[in-house]
Amino acid sequence: MITFSSVSKTYEDGTTAIHPLDITIREDEFFVLIGPSGCGKTTTLKMINRLIEPTEGKITIHGQDIRTMDILQLRWNIGYVLQEIDLFPHMTIAENIATRSVITRRKYTSTQKSI
User: Fold this and answer.
1) Which residues on neighbouring strands pair with residue 10, listed in sequence order?
2) How far apart (Å, rounded) are the C-alpha atoms in residues 113 and 10?
3) Is the domain 2-80 a CATH 3.20.20.300 member?
4) Where in the chain is the domain with CATH 3.40.50.300?
5) What does the pLDDT average to over 96-112?
6) How far apart are the first and last CA of the chain?
7) Per-residue model confidence as pLDDT tens digits over 6-31
8) Alpha-carbon separation of residue 93 from 71, 79, 80 (angstroms)
9) What are the residues facing 4 on neighbouring strands?
10) Confidence band (pLDDT; 50, 70, 90) for 91?
11) CA 3 to CA 21: how far, in whole Å?
12) 69: which strand partners?
């Protein structure tokens, strides 16, 4: 479970990308962010694996603050699909997600359960 508790992001130039956000994404839940360009979808996702740090608030995974997690382990264990440009165009969404399993030598059956 991933929880955003009063998470916001304001850049140094004063631009607010994310207003205080409170959401919970439950385990095995299919979660989608939809909105116009520039509304903060990518910023929100990048904060989960700490590519971008929130200005305020806390993000937890299974109750553990992501700031206390080993950043490499955090990134290896988080999977999400960004915009279409980041996908291998000749593969399905499931095949794109399963690509991580090839890299980490994870068993195919385990990957299928995750998808």
Assistant:
1) 16
2) 37
3) no
4) 2-80
5) 60
6) 16
7) 999 999 999 999 999 999 999 888 78
8) 25, 12, 10
9) 23, 59
10) confident
11) 10
12) none
Burial 61-95 (b: 16+ CB within 10 A, else e): beeeebeebeeeebeeeeeeeeeeeebeeeeeeee
Q: Write out the two tokens for 110.
A: 């385990």
Q: Are the beta carbons of 46 and 57 closer than 8 angstroms? A: no
Task: Retrieve residue 68's tokens.
Answer: 């206390």
Contacts of 93 (CB under 8 A, 6+ apart): 81, 87
- Tell me, what amino acid is at 70? D
Give the integer Cα–Cα distance in Å for 59 and 56: 10
